[in-house]
Every structure is written in C-alpha cells, then in structure tokens.
Amino acid sequence: MLSCNSSLAQLAKRSGSVSKSQSSDFQIQASKKIDRLVGADFRRKQIRPLGKANDAEFMRRAYLNAIGRIPSYEEAVSFLNDESPDKRNNLIDSLLGSYGYNMHMFNWWADLLRATDEFEDTSGAPYIKWIKDSIAENKSYKSMVHELISATGGGWQNGAVGYYVRDQGMLKDNMANTTRIFLGTRIECAQCHNHPFDSWKQMDFYQMAAFTNGIKTAKSHLSNYLEDKEDMDGVSRDLRDVSRLIRYAVYDFSIEDTGTGTIRLPKDYKYRDGDPGERVGAKSLSQFGKTVKVSTRSKSTDPGKSRVKFADWLVSPDNPRFTKVIANRMWKRVMATGLFEPLDNFSSASEPSNSALMSYLEELLIDLDYDLLAFQKILYKSYSFQLRPNAIQHPDRS
Prior knowledge:
This protein is mainly alpha-helical and about 400 residues long. It contains 17 helices and six strands. Helix 8 (about 140-150) runs antiparallel to helix 14 (about 305-315) and helix 10 crosses helix 11.
C-alpha cells in the first residue's frame, strides 16, 4: 500500500472529530501539494503557465465542470459581486453539495456503467435508482464497485444486480468491460487468442471470466406462472402487456447465485498451457497485486463464493491498478486531460505524463477512503484548476 503523507495526516488529526474528507485544512494542504507537483513538472519540461483565470472564467468553468450548466444571471452576479477572499472555495463547496452535482455525477456514472432505462427484456429502473442513491449518500467508490461485482438477489431489493442483468447471456463480455472500466485494461482481444501487443494470454482471459461464469438471472414461481398464462386463449392484449410489464420490471430483474468459479476452455484452444474443453478455475491477473484463485476440485456449485473473492481482490489497495485508474478518471473529469491516455487502455508500456503527481493522487485517494466527492473538492480548489484555458506554452528559447 502507498504510504500516507505524514504532514497531511497530522493536519487531519488536529481537526478533531472531523474526517479528512471534511477537513478544510486537509483539503487546502492537499491542493497545495498537487500544485507543487504540477509546478515542478512545468519547470522540468520548461512550460510556462499563462496565468490565473479571472472570476468570470473560473465561475463558468466551475459550473460547467461540477454541475453541467452555466450559472444563471442571479448566480453570476452574486458570485462576481462577492468580495470574500474565499469565494472560489465557497463556490466549489456549494456546487459539489448541490442536487445539480448529484445529477451531473449520475450522468458520468451511467455512461461508465452503461445504465439505460430499459435492458433487452426488462426495466433498468432498479439499476438507475441504485446508482442515484449511491451518489446521494456519497458512497465510497470502493464500496460501490464491491457491491456491483458481488451483487446478488432481487433488483428492487438490490439494484446493483443490474450490472449483470444488463449483460445477461454475455458474461465474458461483462468481464471484459469490468477489466476495462475498473482496471483500465483491455483483455477482450485475449478471448480468442493471446494478446499480440500486451502480456495477456487467452488463459488469463478465461481464468478471469471463471469468476463470474455460471451466474443466472432468477425467475420466481409467480414469474413463471404469469409467463404461462400470457399466451393462453382469451387473454386480452392489454392484460398480456400489463402482465409482461410486471414480470419484466419486478420478477425477472434478479441474480440467483454468485457463479461457479470455473469455466471450460474453448474446444479450439491451441496453447500448451491447457487442453481444449478443459475446466479451469478462476484466477486473478498476476500483474495486479496478490493473486486469488478458485479451485476446480470443489464439488460445491459456488466454490468459495467466487465473485466475492473477485470483488475483494479488485478493490484492494494492494491492487495498484484499481486506484490508479479511478484517480486518473477523476483528474480528467476535473482537469479535462488524463495523466495517461486513453483512460481505459493502460498497459505495461504506459507512463503517466507526471509520475510523481499520479503517485500522490493514488496516495490521496486511499487516504480519503475513496471518497470521490472529497477528492474532487481538492482538485477543484487547487491553483492548477484555476489556470487559464490552454494555459501552458513553451518559452522562447532563442
């Protein structure tokens, strides 16, 4: 695990019962640390900032970034006429504490998690509600991801199951999306053959897919009863439509188990590390922290609760890629450009544009227990965010 910054930790302790994420002193000092790292990188690369944005530029950028709209006339006048030296930080606190922030953040999450109003044959409403509720209560990113990956049960009791209901029948594709979204790694190419440009093997893909293999959407007895009755003679079209709506929206939105933890290799598997059709156990990517496995010897239909093991491994601070990817996503959300691009294709050859800053952002996010709201506040309150648009240029070296 990355070590905590001692000076920031001491500031948080002095704040008494106030958590680090709520401590204004901690936020300000963390912002200054970010600015020092950005400044050092500018000097090293001989880049000169163009200067600080004026109040109008800052206000417009803050509103658009934080809540997705420009300020109203009244809001603009109020901010521009405010003579408080802390008015910029106060504006950030106000925007990130608003309903507008929640909705703008929901749009970001909905895009990342591919949430829609309707899936192929059921409503996406429980999934959407779960995402909105998680944002409203400021659930930590770590908790959200763990709940998504390990989700089971009925959708109206646990909307997180929508992460799998959305991809029912396509669990290999779901695993490819999981590694892309949360690990910034594209392994889908290895579903058919060893990756030609990275270290991933076809065996790696199938061992990862084994963690979620075998999970099924559940149907209650009432769901089956309704389905049987819908096609009976004499049932009106309106009644049939109502029955299907109830069945799709209420009874078919559920996951009944946590997967088998094993999977069979394809019949045309051609590499020496396995045989065609061989059953292999789940195993995490060895490049990312401590490896976890599920044995093929267990006769249980749910050996070791494979998805829970996978979720524990995925969100562990000992898995360096998990923290790095979300820290970079949040940096781009606030600053417009990631420290490494593209966001979801980080390979062994990738290198952040500012390695020291990337390391500190990872450390900071762990220190904040993956509180994305507090993390964004720190970024927004930095001098780096206040630089003018396109705010760097090389000096004249003649």
